[in-house]
Amino acid sequence: MAIEIPSIPLGQWIEGGLDWLTSEYSMVTRGISQVTQTGIDGLNDALMWLPPWGLLLIIVGLCWWVANMRLAIGAAAGMALIWNLGLWDPMIETLTLVVIATLVAVVIALPVGIAAALSERLYRMIMPVLDFMQTMPAFVYLIPAIPFFGIGSVSAIFATVIFSMPPAIRFTTLGIRQVPGELIEAADAYGATRGQKLVKVQLPLSLPTVMAGINQTIMLALSMVVIAAMIGADGLGSEVWRAIQRLRPGDGFEAGIAVVILAMLLDRLTQSLRKQRKS
Amino acid sequence: MNEKRNVKIRVRNLSKVFGNNPKKALELRDQGLKRPEILDKTGQTLGLSNIDFDVYEGELLVIMGLSGSGKSTLIRCLNRLIEPTEGEIVIDGEDIPQLDDKALLECRRRHFSMVFQNFALFPHRTVQQNAEFGLEIRGVERAERAEIARKALKQVGLDGWEDAYPNQLSGGMQQRVGLARALANDSTVLLMDEAFSALDPLIRGDMQQELQELQSRMQKTTVFITHDLDEALNIADRIILLKDGEIVQIGTPEQILTHPADDYVKRFVEGVDMSKILTAEHAMRKVRAVAREGDGPRTTLRKMHEHNLDSIYVTRRDRTLMGLLEVDAAEQAAREGADTIGAAMTQDFRKVGPQEPLHNLFAMFSEKSFPIAVVDDDERLLGVVVKGAVLDQLARAAEENTTADADTETAAAGEQ
């Protein structure tokens, strides 16, 4: 005879908590929502205002400046292909979401990462939270985002920030902790305050590692922004999503290739930024 | 050496226990237990125990011991990079262990500059910026600190390298940057933690010499840590020998060599004691100038002045040694209008044959500070031995010897 063990109502508790948060903090969420939406629209409009060839030139120039000719040529070819496929506007929308999500994630991640590096207690508190944030299937973040911020880009940003932030925090912490003990000792021996130590020794020496973390954050943000099409985010993701619903593999692959091009471009660009810093 | 000297740092009853229950460990120590038993019973490591010593103003004090003797802990207790468990460290009237955080920063900035074994240069800063570090921390204005740092770099022979990064420099040059960083800071005390140990022997010798020159020029109070007796003998005004966190002996290099305090020191020194094989001939140097019996006092005085001598040996034309003339006696003879220096000479000096063992020369130095004359069987002057040269020779011999002895030494240390 099977004994009926009542299942723990974990899901109900979480829903209760989310409902409470939604109703209690609706003012806050609405405020955040408005600010974020303004940011998205502003950046989007600015990028759209430029003619495609103008933006293309800027991107190529940027690649040539921070990296090399090869990346510049690759970027030109990739961007031209996206333009040619008629995916320019969705690409801009995706880029906007990635840029804003990354900015927000980095702005939160840097101080948290620094604090975790300097305080052992905070470090032990934050690391499991980061594990949770990273291993939870990305789709799950989309669900609470909707009651908080409604369907659309703001929810996409919210979910993306949560999903993409952990590497930036982790790498910042790692970078600071990796600074050789003897250099910290030297700074101490000359009477440096904690602030001086941080600004003059720890941060500059951890910069390459921090940049690697930001690179990871950008990549994760891009993947999440695409998935966020499921909750109504614009961009290349919604092109893919539409192709799935209409069973048109050709369109799906075209949008997918555009995502790959954007990803490679962002990755190479931030990586060469990092290498430039190192040398 | 014997004049009364000002105490710069007074260390009394300094102890350091590594572990979470230092009280217990110190209690056991007071009951007469030693480091291994305390570790067995409490799991606490007695890093330093009841250390008493003074650092005099302007001296170069070497703290020497094998690894694990507590020397690195000791130097870090001075500026509290390691917190001492008990005891006082008084510098200019301030008891360092009692300082609060702010006063400690101030104290470190004013009193201590440190040079590290592995240089600890900041890789993201240029040589110039590294040298400026201490001043920058203290808030010295940009133009002023650039000027001071440039001077310091010049002092260590690095002018022209200001814009290089540390990884572009050889080990010896990197440590010069470390030294410049310390000198630029113009603190009252220089702490050197195995500063030359990571350098290869040739460069190490150069750096030792340069440090001595800098030190005698600037009279900077220096605490120098090393595991290398050769290095200690070479540069020290005084040596403190540490073993298992306790002081075994404090003394000048000569005292340590000639009167080792116990078997431990003796065993240490035995590696060095090649004096039985080395003779006066090895340490002898050519005579810079001699006087003739028939010379007038004024000629002789000028000669002495020219060669910067306090005393001069008097010989015949065939270099047969006749006597020694001190500068005072020469001046007196000149005042009295003597024709020659013959009457002003003294016979109160030491002469030895070239085969005289070096260790016999120590005792002679403690009486008079004249150079010892080395003469052949016919009393002809071959050369002189000055005090430093004896130690130099011993130290050099020790270096060759200790490489062979290193294994037995570490084995012995392991037993302790």
UniProtKB/TrEMBL annotation, chain A:
Q: Where is the ABC transmembrane type-1 domain?
A: 91-270
Q: Which InterPro entries match?
A: MetI-like, MetI-like_sf
Q: Give the UniProt entry's GO cellular component terms.
A: ATP-binding cassette (ABC) transporter complex
- GO BP annotations, alphabetical order: choline transport; glycine betaine transport
Supply the Pfam families for this chain. Answer: BPD_transp_1
GO MF term (any one) = amine transmembrane transporter activity
Which keywords label this protein? Cell membrane, Membrane, Transmembrane, Transmembrane helix, Transport
User: Per the record's keyword annotation, is Cell membrane included, yes or no?
Assistant: yes
**UniProt entry tagged with the keyword Cell membrane:** yes
Q: Which CDD domains match?
A: TM_PBP2
| Residue ranges of the TM segments | 53-83, 95-118, 138-163, 210-233
Which family, according to the similarity comment?
A: Belongs to the binding-protein-dependent transport system permease family.
What's the protein here called?
Answer: Glycine betaine/proline transport system permease protein
Automatic annotation (TrEMBL), chain B:
**Might you name a Gene Ontology BP term for this protein?**
response to osmotic stress
Listed GO cellular component terms?
A: plasma membrane
Boundaries of every ABC transporter domain copy: 28-269
Q: What class of enzyme is it?
A: translocase
Q: Report membrane topology.
A: Peripheral membrane protein
Assembly and interaction partners: The complex is probably composed of two ATP-binding proteins, two transmembrane proteins and a solute-binding protein.
This protein is called what? Answer: Quaternary amine transport ATP-binding protein
